[in-house]
Design goal:
Elements: H1 3-17, H2 24-33, H3 39-78, H4 91-148, H5 154-162, H6 165-184, H7 189-199, H8 203-218, H9 222-276, H10 280-306, H11 336-359, H12 363-367, H13 373-389, H14 396-444, H15 449-456, H16 464-478, H17 481-492, H18 495-510, H19 515-564, H20 584-611, H21 614-636
Helix pairs in contact: 1-3, 2-4, 3-4, 4-5, 4-6, 4-9, 4-18, 4-19, 5-6, 6-7, 7-8, 9-10, 9-19, 10-20, 13-14, 14-15, 14-19, 14-21, 15-16, 16-17, 17-18, 18-19, 19-20, 19-21, 20-21
Length: about 625
């Protein structure tokens, strides 16, 4: 148990337990979100964070109160406001009163916001889990159907599925909780199913469990039941995804309205306020260097929470490697000639690997794009170091150039190999449904799976042909279909391929006739690919909108930097004269930084909306960052 939870419960636990009825919904949401905390401990922690942030808010209010007071006083003086009361005589009281009011206001605001946000967090997680359960349930039921055809009972199917939560997602995790109830709590299967039906937030999963309970109580055919549910869920998968895409669309519109148009509106207001008196430049810096990055980062975290993992995301392989130790105690006699021969063999193998690597020096980067960082990050640091110590003095302009150059050196090679790898994986996944259908047809005529793979390997399958031939070679060497499929999974490492390999491997363990399993796998892969294409087509319009909104952001800043700011004099203008409290070059630098920061985070969020991965958004981030940099360095100067 975390120390913070203990402290919070010790301080607020008794008070929270007296309000059990008020937090009944929070208790339910914690169970549905699978947050491993009791409701009273979670609410006590919420109280603790609310009080701590309230104290921090009071401290911030005390610090910025004099600044707000001076800014308001400057605005009133510059506007020649005539008051019926002598403000100078009571200015000291006004300053103290404004400080007290602002301190209380910010403390209360921060405390209330943190309190309600923490109470909403379980609801958000539970709702997100509901969406993920609904979208992964068709694949889970397909897995159950395949195993039921091999004659496995319901408990064995659930136990096998509970081991594949990293492949089958949230729906498999719900099944894992049913297995935990039966294995560790001593609950019978029907009671555990009924408890899970009450506990889950997904109506679709609840209906599935209710129907399964009816089948189990009446002794019905579970294989026919799973087959019917697979057809039902595959037909309704498109409708389920459309509701998920509607939620993503709402989130995307919120980002464009609040986090793109909002900062632009604030920047405009602060520039106008800067014309009437000093004090707005600090607020402008806070908006550009603090508010925009923090709000964009928070929004990116929110997207990562509510988004369903992309099939191109690298995952942990479900298989395990174990060393056989049966013959560790057998005595061996080492002959000197044999030892010399082993050394020669190892030396020859090392040279062979070096020669092969020299023929294909870029192959390691294609298989693992992050390896480019080992070369590019030191190069970028060298550029920054040269700029700082040997570049003729460190200035803001030189630092901007060095940072942009360093980011390009680090990200461009990585993005090149990442996109090449992602493109290859997509091509493989596009070919997998057709490969499985061909395999099922060949296997249906009576040919075993090993011979079927050898036969299909002679057919042109596009980019998948190389992988199938490698599987054939693995089978010839190891005489194991499971090992060859697992190695194929390890080479591609995507959720879609892992689902197929898991399905075929586990089904082949229970039955030798897997022609129906191959058809189920082909149908499941085709469904996943079709949903992925529909999702990309739906979210592509929001990618275009993000680019257009960023173009408007650049256009407005360009107008400010080239047409508006040069027309306004600088200096301490008073007596109604409009002036700015900084020179033109400083405002131009702030505008450039605002455009670069906004572009970088907008690109990452655009990639998350279309590909559900920050790495997918890096190419958009680099494009927008370079566009902003070139606009201010080439066209504005």
């Amino acid at each position: 148990m975390n120390l913070i939870y203990k402290i919070a419960f010790a301080i607020f636990g008794r008070r929270v337990r007296g309000k059990a009825e008020a937090y009944a919904e929070t208790r339910v949401m914690l169970e549905q979100a699978h947050i491993p905390l009791t409701w009273d401990m979670y609410v006590s922690t919420t109280y603790l964070y609310a009080h701590l942030l309230g104290i921090i808010g009071a401290f911030l209010g005390y610090l910025i109160a004099p600044l707000i007071y001076r800014l308001c006083k400057t605005v009133m003086d510059s506007s020649q406001f005539v008051s019926p009361v002598d403000l100078e005589s009571i200015s000291g009281y006004w300053e103290v009163a404004s400080a007290v009011i602002l301190t209380i206001l910010i403390a209360t605001l921060l405390g209330a916001i943190s309190y309600y946000l923490m109470l909403m967090y379980p609801y958000l997680i539970a709702t997100t889990r509901k969406t993920k359960i609904d979208l992964t349930l068709p694949h889970v039921v397909a897995y159950m159907h395949a195993l039921s055809k091999g004659g496995m009972n319901l408990i064995a199917i659930f136990e096998s599925l509970s081991e594949q939560t990293n492949v089958y997602g949230e729906a498999a995790e719900e099944i894992a909780y049913i297995v935990m109830d039966t294995k560790y709590h001593g609950t019978d299967l029907l009671t555990a199913l009924k408890t899970a039906a009450v506990r889950t937030r997904s109506e679709k999963f609840r209906d599935f469990l209710d129907n399964l309970i009816s089948v189990a109580e009446t002794g019905g055919d579970t294989e026919s039941f799973f087959g019917g549910m697979v057809d039902h869920y595959q037909r309704s998968a498109a409708a389920d995804q459309s509701s998920y895409l509607e939620m993503l669309a709402m989130v995307a519109e919120t980002y464009i309205t609040v986090f793109v148009a909002g900062p632009l509106f604030l920047i405009t207001i602060l520039i106008v306020m800067g014309m009437m008196g000093p004090g707005s430049l600090l607020a402008l810096r806070l908006v550009i260097y603090v508010m925009i990055p923090i709000s964009a980062a928070a929004f990116a975290v929110l997207l990562s929470i509510i988004s369903i993992g992309s099939d191109t995301n690298m995952i942990k392989i479900y298989t395990e490697t174990r060393r056989i130790r049966q013959y560790d105690d057998v005595r061996t006699r080492i002959i000197e000639d044999d030892e010399r021969m082993v050394r020669r063999l190892m030396r020859s193998l090392r040279w062979t690997s070096v020669i092969k690597s020299s023929k294909t020096p870029l192959k390691p980067f294609y298989s693992e794009p992050s390896r480019t960082l080992y070369l590019c990050v030191p190069a970028a640091l060298l550029i920054l170091g040269y700029t700082a110590y040997y570049g003729g003095g460190l200035t803001i302009d030189r630092l901007d150039d060095a940072v942009v150059a360093g980011l390009l050196i680090v990200l461009v090679p990585y993005l090149f190999f990442y996109e090449m790898q992602r493109r290859r994986i997509r091509q493989i996944e596009d070919s997998v449904p057709g490969f499985l259908r061909k395999l099922a047809v060949v296997n249906d005529v009576g040919m075993p799976l090993t011979a079927a793979i050898k036969s299909v390997s002679e057919v042109n399958l596009g980019v998948l042909s190389t992988e199938v031939k490698l599987m054939r070679k693995d089978m010839e060497w190891s005489h194991s279909i499971a090992d060859s499929l697992i190695k194929f999974e390890q080479r591609v490492r995507t959720i879609a391929i892992s689902r197929i390999v898991t399905l075929i491997t586990k089904a082949s363990e229970s039955t030798g006739n897997i022609k129906e399993t191959l058809r189920i796998a082909a149908s499941d892969a085709a469904l996943a690919e079709r949903l992925r294409r529909e999702k990309f087509a739906s979210m592509f319009s929001y990618l275009v909108i993000v680019y257009l909104s960023f173009a408007v952001f650049l256009l407005v800043l360009y107008v400010f930097a080239t047409m508006f700011i040069p027309m306004v004099p600088t200096g301490g203008g008073g007596g109604g004269m409009l002036s700015l409290d900084a020179n033109e070059s400083e405002y131009t630098m702030l505008f450039m930084h605002a455009a670069m920061i906004q572009g970088f985070f907008s690109g990452i969020i655009a990639g998350q909306m279309t590909g559900e991965s920050a790495c997918t958004g890096l190419k958009h981030a680099v494009t927008m960052l370079v566009a902003a940099y070139l606009l201010f360095t080439v066209f504005i100067g």
